[in-house]
Amino acid sequence: MTQLDLAVKMNRDQQNIQRLEKGRVNPSKYFLEEVSEALEIDVRKLIP
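and the corresponding structure tokens:
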């Protein structure tokens, strides 16, 4: 899945996904839950 695909699925801007991927933001729990739902994975897989 591309950043654009994820952004569309989450109804977010692609730049939000880019910032997250590059580590430029500290995402909220809510945002991580949105990402995990869009990717259909457990949120714990997103947290190191």
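(Above: one complete record from the training split.) Residues 3-46 form one domain.
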